[in-house]
Every structure is written in structure tokens, then in C-alpha cells.
Write a structure and sequence with these properties.
It contains 11 helices and 12 strands. By secondary structure, it is of the alpha/beta class. The structure holds pyridoxal-5'-phosphate.
Length: 410
């Protein structure tokens, strides 16, 4: 690619506009790095914690210490972090089944939970919540905010668990701030102190100096293919929160008689520790990339989300393109600028679980890892691309240049 003077000017102008946003992010990253480092120090992390274990994994100090790190960093009573959790969806599913029993109601208060939870809640004869006679209710967001009045009206005696999704998923809305989540939790707990509040924190970790677990969430869940894996963890998920519920999650992850007493990992834990240590910095880089991309497209007259200077509560950048062709070129540019599979050209395709055709760019080291630069979009109007990740700011900056060259021929 030839980086023309015009492209350099566009990037420089945008960078000048977002200087203060970057300063704020540097400060958040510093405070989070301190929090993570202190957890490593307090847990006396050493070489032996990274070792592989085999068989049942009794007394696996690598596993147990990793759990303690998450517990300390997220300020919770207990934590499960494990490569045996296959994904964020798996972690969320474990947590839902840990809390809910037949005839209980799950109440989602930020609209529909992430797409992959649809069948977990409502599927037929696949062991869904519905198959176990667990009810589901939903309160949609009102102008992008939690409709707390409606939530309080909807809670009844059967409401066992309230589900909050912090990130935007595939929706044209902003992610929720930790403060807003905290306000909703306080309002609910004031009246219903026993209801269990669970937050899907995917894409949210280390974007703020506080996490939902600091503002009253009973359970908080995320994927190691995203922020807390730091781009190094090869898989896994975490569940942190009140000991009572995390214990229940352990019984679901293994067996009710066993919980977290077993679980070995023959590949060793090094990437999980090192990735966690890197996570505050990597996440800040991803967000800086998102802010640059957003500013550049905003300057070119495109609608993007979050709006300039409004802060980021997840790492996703939504960009509304004017035509299907622009959208497809954008996704193809992201693939082209990837370190892996840069020669592959993505096209829209029917994917299991999606209504519309989808186009995806994911030239990542870890398959599908969305803390690495990746983008995807359902092919439907309005033509919105969802971009996320980037292990280094420089990579996302280069990606922005590629997009300018490919879409606008600058
Ligand atoms: C990615 C994601 C999930 C699911 O995580 P996977 O690891 O992809 O299964 C759930 N919720 C949100 C908001 C996500 O972004």
C-alpha cells in the first residue's frame, strides 16, 4: 500500500482531535496496570504457577492462583477462570444454570442478551432454560438507557436473576457505563435485595477504573478471547462474584460433587497469566484504535458510535456505511491488513445462527479472538460494520489507512 500525503494529513488531523481522549485512556491503563500488578505481587506469582498439570488436577496451584488473581483484580469474593470454559457464551450459560431453578424467572433489563444466548434461553429440546421450565422476561432499553421504572414494575416474586449486558452487541447503541450499571443495581437492590444481578462484561474489562463487580453485580462474566486474555490467552472464560454463586457455577462447570477441586491443563497456564498482565495495555490500544477510526470516519461525514469524545464502555466501533459496497470493501480491507490470512478475501455468507448473510474479517493469531483486530457485519440496511480489537495502536492506524485507500481511493 502507498500511504499518500492526503492519507497522512487525514490521520494527523484526527490524531490532533483525539489527544485528550488518549490522555484519559493512558491514565485508566496506568491505574488498571497497577491494580493487576499488585494482584500478581500479592499472590506471589512465580514460575511454578505456569506449569502444565495433568489428570484430575488436584491441588493445581496454577489454576487456583489464576482464579485468585481475577478475584483480587475484580474485587469479588470468588472467581473461576479456566481454559476448560470454551467461550464467553459457555461461561454465561454456566452462570445462568448455576443460579436459576425451575419456575424461576430470568429478567433481562438491557434488551435481548447477546445473540448466542437466544437458544440458551428459548431453544427447544436442547437443554435450554425453557426446557427446564425457567421463565424469561425482558425490558428493553429506553433511548439507550436502562428503563429502571419499567424494570421495577416487572420484577415479581419469581424473579431470581437480572441480566445486564454491558456491551452493545449488534445494536446501534452505546455500551453502558459502569456508573449507569451501578445506579441501576442500587435502585433494584434497595427494594429487592435478594435478586441475583449478573452482568455480561464481554468487551468491557479494563475500560474504566471500576468494573461492574465494583458497583454491586453479584456475578460478572467474560471471555478470554476478548479483553482480559490480553491477546495471549488461547481460549477460556471467567466467572467472578459472590462466593455462593461462583461455587454453584463450579458445580455446573464440573460436577455437583466436585466443583473447582479438579480440572487440569496439560498445555500450561503461562498465556493466561501473561495475557492478564498485558490486558490493561492491550485493551487501551484497542480503544485508541477505535477512537481514531471513529474520528476519521466522523470527519468524512459518516455516523459512528460511540460519538467523538464520549468515552468508550466497550471496545466496539460501529460505523454506518452509505452503501453495501462500501461496507464490504471496509471488511475486506480489515482482512487485508491482518497479520494472518491477509491473502483471504471475505465475502458475505450465510452463517448458522444468523438471519442475514454475514461478512467477517478475522485475520487473527487466536481463532476468532476479537481483542485482535476484527470486523463483522450482517448484510442488511442500514449497513453497519462492527469493528473491534487491535493488539497494537499502530496496527489499527495502518488499518485505517488501508480503509481510506480502498474505500475512497485517497
Ligand atoms: C463475545 C460476546 C459474548 C460471547 O462470547 P464468546 O466468547 O464469543 O462466546 C457474549 N456477550 C457479548 C456482549 C459478547 O461480546
Amino acid at each position: 500500500m502507498i500511504i499518500t500525503d492526503k492519507i497522512v494529513t487525514i490521520i494527523n488531523d484526527a490524531e490532533a482531535q483525539i489527544k485528550d481522549d488518549f490522555k484519559r485512556l493512558d491514565n485508566i491503563a496506568l491505574l488498571n496496570q497497577k491494580k493487576v500488578l499488585e494482584a500478581f505481587q500479592n499472590n506471589n506469582v512465580s514460575l511454578r504457577h505456569f506449569s502444565q498439570t495433568t489428570g484430575y488436577g488436584y491441588d493445581d496451584i496454577g489454576r487456583d492462583t489464576l482464579c485468585n488473581l481475577y478475584k483480587d483484580i475484580f474485587h469479588t469474593e470468588s472467581a473461576i477462570v479456566s481454559p476448560l470454559i470454551a467461550s464467553g457464551t459457555h461461561a454465561l450459560t454456566i452462570a445462568l444454570f448455576a443460579v436459576l431453578r425451575p419456575n424461576d424467572t430470568m429478567l433481562a433489563i438491557t434488551g435481548a442478551p447477546y445473540d448466542t444466548l437466544g437458544a440458551v434461553i428459548n431453544g427447544d429440546n436442547i437443554g435450554s432454560l425453557k426446557d427446564y421450565s425457567i421463565n424469561y422476561k425482558q425490558v428493553d432499553l429506553l433511548n439507550g438507557k436502562i428503563d429502571i421504572k419499567k424494570v421495577l414494575e416487572t420484577i415479581d416474586k419469581s424473579t431470581k436473576l437480572i441480566f445486564i449486558g454491558r456491551s452493545r452487541g449488534y445494536e446501534w447503541r452505546d455500551a453502558l457505563s459502569v456508573e449507569e450499571i451501578g445506579n441501576a443495581i442500587s435502585a433494584i437492590k434497595k427494594i429487592h435485595k435478594d435478586v441475583v444481578i449478573m452482568v455480561d462484561n464481554c468487551y468491557g474489562e479494563f475500560l474504566d477504573t471500576q468494573e461492574p463487580s465494583d458497583v454491586g453485580a453479584d456475578l460478572m462474566i467474560g471471555s478470554l478471547n476478548k479483553n482480559p486474555g490480553g491477546g495471549l490467552a488461547a481460549n477460556g472464560g471467567y466467572i467472578v462474584g459472590k462466593k455462593k454463586w461462583v461455587d454453584q457455577a463450579g458445580y455446573r462447570l464440573t460436577a455437583p460433587s466436585i466443583g473447582m477441586e479438579i480440572g487440569s491443563y496439560a498445555s500450561g497456564y503461562l498465556p493466561y497469566y501473561q495475557g492478564l498482565f498485558m490486558a490493561p495495555h492491550v485493551t487501551a490500544n484497542a480503544v485508541k484504535g477505535s477512537i481514531l477510526m471513529g474520528q476519521v470516519f466522523e470527519n468524512l461525514g459518516y455516523e459512528t458510535m460511540p460519538k467523538a469524545h464520549s468515552g468508550c464502555n466497550d471496545i466496539i466501533r460501529s460505523i454506518k456505511f452509505k452503501t453495501k459496497e462500501e461496507l464490504i470493501t471496509f471488511i475486506q480491507s480489515i482482512q487485508k491488513v491482518s497479520p494472518v490470512d491477509s491473502n483471504v478475501v471475505p465475502y458475505p455468507w450465510a452463517m448458522p445462527g444468523y438471519e442475514d448473510e454475514v461478512i467477517m474479517a478475522a485475520g487473527t493469531f487466536i481463532q476468532g479472538a476479537s481483542i485482535e483486530l476484527s470486523a463483522d457485519s450482517p448484510i442488511k440496511e442500514p449497513y453497519i460494520a462492527y469493528l473491534q480489537g487491535g493488539l497494537t495502536y499502530e496496527h489499527v492506524k495502518l488499518a485505517t489507512m488501508y480503509c481510506l485507500a480502498d474505500i475512497f481511493k485517497f
